[in-house]
Design goal:
heterotrimer, A alpha/beta (137), B alpha+beta (685), C mainly beta (335), A: 137 residues, alpha/beta, two-stranded antiparallel sheet, 5 helices, 44% helix, globular, B: 685 residues, Beta-Lactamase, 5-stranded antiparallel beta sheet, 20 strands, 20% strand
């Protein structure tokens, strides 16, 4: 499993050198397309319901390329600002999004838990997934 | 038996000391042996219980912590990975880390809601959980085959209402052995009562667990046990300690107490014996000294005991008593001497009073002596009955023998003298009585003397007056017989008159002699004279009379011819003739034996006859004047009765003692004259 | 007291230790709290030590020792916070030394939220009055300076006890409306700047990326004072970029009876030299009609944050009256 992860990671890195990597915010739940501001609100936990669905934002590990790209392009917030944000959120009684360590588990989670919203490199997005937002770095 | 024991002070002391010594000891001993043993046992058990209780708490808190840990793990966000079947191995790593951190024999199993095993740790453990998960629907933990299973539902962190699996911890109860002890003497183990499941080394000795108590002491073990709560509900922690080890200190203590008690009992007995002996010792010594004092009458002896204050006081008191006794005895002896002296004085006084010859001397002496004895000068005597002298007095009466009644004699005045004691009064009474007696005696003596003198003078004058006509009668009758021619009848009559006159004259002479003697007018001239010739001449005179009556007459001399005695020869012959004539007179047949022999410095003249004899009762009166023995011979032999009496009286005057002896009537009589031999003539022929 | 301090110290220490063990897996960081036991509960807390020095006094203070817990269950969520205010205060006022310690545990916040739908949520309990920006996170460690701008202290009540309703919608921009309602006495009002028994407020905010504009208005009634409404209005904006931030709030307060208007406002600029080293400049102006004081002053600050949840702050305020110039140093931690 670990080996597979490494291979994929290598692929992703090499791919990024070749051309701009494309990502998508996805969910299995029937959600409408989102604006960046909405995606940001979801991942900052400002928005927890959408169309009656309880939204569950799932992050990848901090050092994951997809996450780095996500923070840079969608949230448009640096790590220190995010840290500040979540520290203040803790004071206000909010938790940061869940985290899964691998793309596989994110996919499995997306598949298993209704309302899950996460982001994946576009090539990892399954046919059945509902693409809510796309970006490329 | 006990009464005897308690009579002795030593025994009492001994019993008391033993009692006083032993009672607290016995109380202490019984306390130590029973109460303190009970307390100590209780304390030991309590300590063991505390110890086991700590273990129970440790185990319970350990298991509680485990329970919390399981619950904590189940609620972690990472548990959401159940939903992705732990693809990232995060749960497994977490559980492994937990197992590693806990460092105990345990396994975690994580099941999804579809009972699919999602993760288990450690990795090398047995995969399958040999348990149906449904069992946890009723209770959160199960114990099976020595393993504890704890289960917790896992819910999604993003939606706590959503169950996503079950986390099960399989915990080997042997992990708890680290809290249990297995040593030679101490065993502790966990026991499930109903299943008899055990954790730790179980001691095989039987033990019944009771709900009510938490300890048990049997032959081998001191056991404490405690029911556990929480996860190990229904289990007991049993803590068993070898009895010898657990109660070792107690046994040592009891042994020590017993030994100490024995030593103390012996000490108490010995000390009690010693002290009772010691306390009583002075008393025993005291007794010995007292016995010695009483046996030797040594009242000068003193006791000295300074053993105790009390004995010292006793000896001091005793010494004081001895001193008092000694003084008293001394005073008594002085008083005795004084009394003896007083008695002697009294006797002397009585003597001097009794030797007084006249009433005046007597009374004067008596008054003087009484004054001396009573130590008073106020005593005075008056013979006047109607004296006007003042003061206390005592009237004295004497016996008037003529009137035969007491008459006033005189009055004794005491002045102001008071009798201090009754004995003084008695003494005074005795002395006055003595005086009275002496006065009476003097008076009586004076009267008797006067009377005797009167009698004697009467007799002598009367005899003298009678002899003159008698001599005239006798002269006339002699003349008639010689010179007148008379008829036979006349001769008989005149002869009868002559013999009667002669007899009368003789009697008068005798009376006169007696009177002379009694009046002290008999003139005696004592001079040495030869006794044989005196006797021979007298016998010659009377031998004829004996022969006339046909009596054998013998004379025998066993003394020397020259033997002399100092006497009045005339009166001696008169006595001899009197006695011889009496012998002849009262002997009708037989013999008259006269003998002269010497007995020591005296010579004896014996006149023995075979006559009528004298009864012993008559012998006593025979020598009184005018007494004649009344017998058959009386009518035949007229006599004045003065013969023997006169003989004896004359004998006394001339130094001869006349004795009459008879063995009884019809046995004959022996008369003896004892007379002292002049020393230079006492030679036996 | 010592016992409680020790307990807190041990607790804080244990959180650091827990942090060490958990961070590897969970990415826990200081300032994000920990989950406790089996409950849907996260706990955290914070404290602050500060030192103040100016012409009239010198002061040491252990302030805001606080413990908070929160959690959620389905559409419900809650938050509770208890706090020792001014746990220890040492003040040397020109040689007059005073020492005090308040051991009274205060309920700082206590409320429950319910999300009716994606736009509407309600709240009941005691909460920080959502006026402006400063008062949303008013604790030392999360503030930019140790001292707070006057506008946040004199214009409106910092805490409201009652109900709140919010509507928010997020599209290309975000819009949010808040309604605050208080008709009772407050909970643990001792440390509220105004002890109120009535408060009605309305807030509107409009956010567009890095800029947020906000307007608040309302009135409140002092519990111990005359039955008189105090009206207030606050306008504020926040513009924040990665390295710098501009923040401003201006507030007025109007009293019917006194016929006077107090105002206070500030403009604050912040620049992050690095995420750890931060410089602050703040200009303030205020008017207090009752004391007839109207003045402006400046605050210069420097903050060092080894982590965001730990702050070592220094500041110096410059007044027209030099005697009021104040130096403040503080150390504060959120865990």
């Amino acid at each position: 499993m670990k080996q597979l992860g490494m291979v994929l990671l290598a692929l992703v890195i090499s791919a990024s050198h070749l051309s701009a990597q494309e990502y998508a915010v996805v969910s299995f739940s029937p959600l409408p397309s989102l604006k960046r501001f909405q995606v940001k609100a979801i991942f900052l936990k400002k928005m927890t319901y959408l169309d009656g669905v309880h939204l569950i934002a799932v992050n990848l590990p901090p050092d994951h390329n997809a996450r780095k790209s996500f923070e840079k392009s969608c949230l448009q917030m640096g790590r220190s600002r995010l840290r500040e944000y979540w520290t203040k959120a803790h004071y206000l009684g909010h938790r940061p999004p869940l985290r899964k360590d691998s793309l596989e588990s994110v996919q499995r989670f997306l598949n298993t838990v209704e309302g899950t919203v996460s982001y994946l490199p576009i090539e990892e997005v399954a046919q059945s997934m509902n693409i809510l937002y796309r970006w490329s770095d | 038996m006990f009464s005897n024991v308690f009579k002795s002070l030593k025994s009492r002391l001994l019993v008391t000391l033993i009692g006083v010594g032993l009672l607290p000891l016995l109380i202490l001993l019984s306390y130590s042996l029973f109460l303190s043993q009970k307390k100590m046992t209780h304390q030991i058990v309590q300590e063991e219980y505390e110890r086991s209780h700590v273990i129970v708490r440790l185990i319970e808190s350990d298991l509680y912590a485990l329970e919390r840990e399981v619950a904590f793990l189940a609620k972690l966000d990472v548990m959401d990975d159940i939903l992705v079947e732990d693809l990232d191995q995060r749960i497994v790593r977490l559980l492994q880390q937990k197992v590693y951190d806990t460092n105990a024999s345990m396994n975690y199993y994580l099941y999804s809601t579809k009972e699919k095993l999602i993760a288990h740790a450690p990795r090398n453990s047995d995969h399958a959980l040999d348990l149906d998960l449904k069992i946890f629907e009723t209770k959160p933990y199960v114990i099976k085959n020595g393993k504890l299973y704890m289960a917790t539902k896992v819910s999604a962190s993003f939606d706590r209402s959503r169950d996503i699996g079950t986390l099960v911890l399989e915990y080997d109860l042997r992990n708890l052995e680290r809290y249990l002890v297995k040593s030679e003497h101490v065993h502790s183990y966990l026991l499930h009562v109903s299943s008899d499941e055990t954790v730790g080394h179980k001691v095989q000795a039987p033990l019944t667990l009771s709900e009510e108590k938490h300890s048990d002491i049997d032959a081998n073990y001191v056991s404490v046990y405690e029911k556990m709560s929480g996860v190990l509900e229904g289990w007991y922690l049993v803590y068993r300690v070898d009895k010898g080890v657990a109660l070792g200190t107690l046994y040592d203590y009891v042994w020590f107490i017993l030994m100490a008690a024995m030593s103390m009992i012996i000490a108490v007995l010995v000390l009690s014996h010693y002290f009772s002996k010691m306390i009583v010792a002075p008393i025993a010594r005291f007794t010995e000294v007292i016995q010695e004092i009483s046996s030797r009458q040594n009242y000068a002896r003193r006791v000295s005991f300074d053993a105790y204050e009390e004995v010292e006081q006793l000896s001091t008191a005793f010494n004081t008593m001895l001193e008092t006794t000694e003084c008293a005895l001394h005073a008594l002896s002085l008083e005795n001497q004084e009394r003896l002296k007083r008695l002697t004085q009294l006797i002397e006084i009585f003597n001097s009073i009794s030797t007084t010859e006249t009433v005046n001397v007597c009374t004067t002496l008596a008054i003087q002596e009484i004054s001396n004895i009573l130590v008073t000068t106020e005593l005075s005597f008056s013979q006047e009955e109607n004296s006007t002298q003042e003061g206390v007095y005592k009237d004295l009466y004497v016996m008037d023998f003529e009137q035969e009644k007491r008459i006033f004699f005189g009055r004794l005045y005491f002045g102001n003298h008071q009798f201090t004691h009754a004995y003084e009064q008695d003494l005074f009474d005795a002395m006055t009585n003595m005086m009275i007696l002496q006065v009476e005696r003097i008076l009586l003596k004076e009267r008797t003397h006067t009377m005797s003198e009167a009698k004697s003078s009467f007799i002598s004058s009367m005899s003298h007056e009678l002899r003159t006509p008698l001599n005239a009668i006798m002269s006339a009758t002699q003349y008639m017989l010689v010179y007148e021619t008379l008829s036979e009848d006349q001769v008989d009559t005149v002869a009868n008159i002559a013999s009667s006159a002669e007899y009368l004259l003789e009697m008068i002479n005798n009376i006169l002699d007696v009177a002379k003697i009694e009046a002290g007018k008999m003139e005696v001239s004592l001079e040495p004279c030869r006794l044989r010739s005196l006797i021979t001449s007298s016998c010659t005179m009377l031998e004829l009379l004996a022969q006339e009556k046909g009596l054998a007459f013998s004379l025998q001399f066993d003394v020397a011819e020259v033997l002399q005695v100092e006497t009045d020869a005339r009166y001696f012959q008169q006595i001899l003739v009197n006695l011889l004539s009496n012998a002849i007179k009262f002997t009708e047949a037989g013999y008259i034996k006269v003998a002269l022999y010497q007995e020591a410095d005296q010579v004896v003249v014996s006149i023995k006859d075979s006559g009528v004899g004298i009864s012993p009762s008559d012998l006593k009166n025979l020598f009184q004047a005018f007494v004649q023995v009344d017998n058959l011979m009386q009518k035949k032999h007229k006599g004045s009765g003065l013969g023997l009496s006169l003989s004896r009286k004359i004998g006394k005057e001339i130094g001869a003692n006349v004795v009459l002896e008879s063995k009884g009537l019809g046995e004959g009589t022996e008369a003896k004259i004892y007379i002292t031999v002049l020393s230079d003539s006492s030679q036996i022929s | 007291m010592r016992k409680k301090l020790r307990f807190l110290f041990v607790f804080v220490l244990s959180l650091f230790i827990e942090n060490g063990t958990l961070s590897a897996d969970d990415g826990y960081q200081l300032g994000e709290g920990v989950q406790v036991g089996s409950l849907p509960l996260y706990v955290g807390g914070y404290f602050s030590l500060d030192y103040t020095n100016n012409e009239s006094y010198e002061q040491y203070r252990l302030d805001d020792l606080s413990l908070l817990g929160y959690g959620s269950y389905e559409k419900f969520s809650y938050l509770a916070e208890v706090e020792y205010k001014e746990l220890y205060l040492y003040r040397d006022e020109n040689g007059t030394i005073s020492e005090s310690s308040d051991h009274q545990l205060q309920i700082e916040r206590l409320y429950g939220d319910y999300a009716f739908n994606e736009h509407v949520s309600g709240r009941v309990g005691k909460y920080n009055t959502p006026v402006g920006f400063w008062n949303l996170v008013p604790i030392n460690v999360l503030r930019e300076t140790t001292s707070s701008p006057l506008v946040t202290e004199i214009i409106y009540p910092e805490y409201t006890t009652g109900a709140a309703l919010s509507y928010s919608t997020i599209g290309d921009a975000s819009f949010r409306a808040d309604v605050m309602l208080q008709f009772t006495e407050g909970i643990s009002e001792t440390y509220n700047n105004y002890n109120t028994d009535e408060h009605v407020g309305l807030g509107l905010s409009y956010g567009l990326d890095d800029l947020v504009l906000k307007a608040n208005a309302g009135y409140f009634n002092l519990h111990d004072g005359p039955d008189e409404r105090l009206y207030y209005g606050v306008l504020s904006f926040n513009y924040e970029k990665e390295d710098y931030q501009f923040l401003s709030e201006v507030g007025w307060r109007y009293s019917d009876r006194l016929q006077q208007t107090n105002y206070a406002g500030y403009l604050q600029g912040l620049y992050r030299l690095t995420p750890q080293h931060i410089g602050i400049v703040r200009l303030e102006r205020y008017a207090d009609r009752s004391t007839r004081v109207e003045e402006g002053f400046g605050v210069l600050g420097y903050t060092y944050r080894p982590w965001y949840s730990m702050a070592l702050k220094s500041e110096y305020s410059v007044h027209s009256d030099a005697d009021l110039n104040t130096f403040i140093l503080s150390f504060s931690v959120l865990f």
